[in-house]
From TrEMBL:
Gene3D superfamilies: Cytochrome-c3 Hydrogenase, chain B, NADH:ubiquinone oxidoreductase, 30kDa subunit. The gene is nuoC. Residues 16-126 form the NADH:ubiquinone oxidoreductase 30kDa subunit domain. This is NADH-quinone oxidoreductase subunit C/D. Keywords: Cell membrane, Membrane, Multifunctional enzyme, NAD. The keyword Cell membrane applies. GO terms for cellular component: plasma membrane. SUPFAM superfamilies: HydB/Nqo4-like, Nqo5-like. It comes from Xylanibacter ruminicola (Prevotella ruminicola). The keyword Membrane applies. It catalyses: a quinone + NADH + 5 H(+)(in) = a quinol + NAD(+) + 4 H(+)(out). It is found in: Cell inner membrane.
Length: 521
């Protein structure tokens, strides 16, 4: 979608944002994009919002004011809970502080990192240290005093008698280098502070120095189980900005590949949930069948984890001659296997005892914390981008959006199971009807995107994955920002797990389905 920005007076910004939610129904904060707009505008943010009833989207642009070389904007974390981490990310990379935010700390970078690297005037310094990062036990809250001067105060993160343990970053159940600083009362969780950045690679910053075709190579290294969808969003926003008309053959193949990738991810998900709860047999069943999915993809893409298949204007190559027959055989094979996962693990009494009422989150909280994907649909939120903002062939085939109302980890698992059946339904309707035509629409040797701002999103394997693009008409993006699937999911761990046990934390982490490179980028 091409973005047309709303803008408000700085003094009225907070109240106008509240009106957008309370009076106009924009209850879902999709993402906050920090940006150095350059020139007279300077630093600021772009807010992308959605009305979850009508699925209408809008964008708000707010420039920061500066005092004592510190840019600031009023917080919206009291309106949308997901803004807590999103604003900390903007502060980390741009140095914008948010008035009224209770916990202004860096999110990805070390506390002693010098400067804010996404500013256009930031200069790279190759110095590094082997010293431990001394983390503060407080968050800063900025505010304007009665005289309008910028002030800050410290808010303690821990009480004097709090017992704090670290789950991760060297814990197998965190599914990567994620650290959850957990405050306990006995075995009961009182508070969780997530820590990211252990594998942060600065992909969005690297993109600013790359041509558009070069940017594609990095998408498969985010959530490596959703490589197709990540690249789909990136090529999608570029193609929309350039007004590229794709052939039906490209759309069919992309849709099939996206659903094969979803099967790949969901099979590993069901396997890892079983493994985290100690059910090794169910883990092996899922891993066994995932190999069949990867075989179908590999014969066309040449890869099993890193696919490198979509490109601006279409596909890297046409499908393999055996692709259609092998995918049809896969669909026939997988249908009874999914029931087998339920027989072995999903309907086991131990599984129900471990996952039911574990990590609960209501529909309203899922929307406020932007818990999209299967985790949100387990609370009844019809958040599927394929239905709400259809792309490629998703509005041309019959399939159901899977929702449940248990609002717990058991239903999150069951939504994944149900979605595998729907993926098979989508593939089955398309695989025999792939039309003839070009698999690639030829582009100019040097790709330049017209000036403007766009946002394009797809339904990733764990929720909405989107890409914001600000182009100044050059061969490289001026600013490109991802909406990762996992950041908002981990941000919801704290309200989900307060009052739960440590064992429930492990089970909920498994059921939420986060992959850390997607968060850290």
């Amino acid at each position: 979608m091409k973005l047309e920005f709303l803008s408000f007076d700085f003094e009225k910004f907070a109240s106008e944002m509240l009106n957008l939610k309370s009076k106009k129904g924009f209850d879902y904060l999709v993402t906050i994009v920090g940006e150095d707009f350059g020139g007279e505008e300077g630093l600021g943010c772009v807010y992308i919002l959605e009305n979850t009833n009508t699925h209408e989207r809008c964008a708000v642009k707010q420039l920061a004011q500066t005092q004592n070389d510190t840019p600031y904007i009023p917080t919206v974390s009291d309106i949308w809970k997901v803004a807590d981490l999103l604003e900390r990310e903007v502060y980390d990379f741009f140095g914008i502080v948010f008035l009224g935010h209770k916990d202004m700390r860096r999110l990805f970078l070390r506390t002693d990192f010098k400067g804010h690297p996404f500013r256009k005037d930031w200069e790279f310094n190759d110095k590094y240290t082997l010293e431990d990062d001394v983390e503060p036990d407080y968050g800063l809250e900025y505010y304007l005093d009665k005289e309008g001067k910028l002030q800050c105060k410290q808010n303690k993160l821990f009480e004097a008698d709090d017992y704090v343990i670290n789950i991760g970053p060297q814990h197998p159940a965190t599914h990567g280098v994620l650290r959850l600083q957990t405050v306990l009362d006995g075995e009961t969780v009182k508070r969780i502070y997530p820590h990211f950045g252990y594998i942060h690679r600065g992909i969005e910053k690297m993109w600013e120095g790359m041509t558009y075709p070069q940017t594609l190579a990095l998408t498969d290294r985010l959530n490596y189980l959703g490589a197709m969808q990540h690249r789909h969003a990136l090529v999608g926003v570029i193609e929309e900005a350039m007004e590229v008309e794709l052939t039906d053959r490209i759309k069919y193949i992309r849709t099939i590949m996206d659903e094969l990738q979803r099967l790949d991810s969901h099979l590993l998900y069901t396997s890892c949930v079983a493994q985290d709860l100690g059910a090794l047999t169910a883990f092996l069943y899922g891993m066994r069948d995932r190999e069949h999915v990867l075989n179908c993809m590999e014969e066309t893409t040449g890869g099993r984890l890193i696919q490198n298949y979509y490109r601006i204007g279409g596909l890297q190559d046409d499908i393999d001659p055996n692709f259609v027959s092998n995918v049809k055989a896969l669909v026939k094979y997988l249908r009874p296997m999914i029931q087998e996962y339920m027989d072995v693990f999903g309907d086991n009494v131990i599984t129900h005892n471990r996952l039911e009422k574990c990590g609960p989150m209501s529909l309203e909280d899922c929307i406020s914390y932007a818990v999209t994907g299967p985790a949100g649909r387990a609370s009844g939120w019809k958040s599927d981008v394929r239905k709400n903002h259809p792309y490629d062939m998703y509005d041309k085939v019959e399939w159901e959006q899977c929702t449940l109302t248990g609002c717990d980890s058991m239903d999150r698992y069951l939504v994944h199971i149900n979605e595998m059946y729907q993926s098979l339904n989508i593939i089955e309707q398309l695989i025999d009807n792939i039309p003839e035509g070009d698999f690639y629409v030829k582009q100019k040797p040097i790709i330049k995107v017209p000036e403007g701002q766009w946002y394009y999103s797809v339904e990733g394997v764990a929720g909405e994955f989107g890409v914001y693009l600000d182009s100044r008409g050059d061969k490289s993006p001026y600013r490109m920002k991802m909406r990762p699937m996992g950041l908002s999911l981990v941000g919801a761990f704290d309200p989900m797990l307060r009052g739960q046990k440590i064992a429930d934390l492990i089970a909920t982490c498994a059921a939420i389905d986060v992959v850390i490179p997607d968060i850290d980028r």
